[in-house]
Amino acid sequence: MIVSKQLQQELSPSVLPAVIKMPEDQQASFIAEYNQRKKSRLMGRLLVLLLPGFHFHQLGFSGKRLMAMMLFQATCGGLLVWWVLEFFLHSTRIQNHNQALAMEIMKNIKVLNA
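Request: output the structure for the sequence above.
Response:
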């Protein structure tokens, strides 16, 4: 098993057992792709603090996020209430994104090796 303790904490309980059961070469592929594509929670919090509104782009561009960014900036972060909420909620969004990413990568590796 080559899955680090940190990665074990990041992965969801539904993904971790499947990754641990993979052969080492598949685990290495999974870990390399996951580490390359995952989003950083620290970077997300820094974006919320330093570039309010632009943190919406960290998880991808969409019309909905663009509208949210414009509204966020126009209202000065909802008079700071929205800004404080975003500081905590954005971290959860990043965690959900990374868990969905892990599921996607795991499925892709299983399909390629089937």
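The chain has a mean pLDDT of 82.
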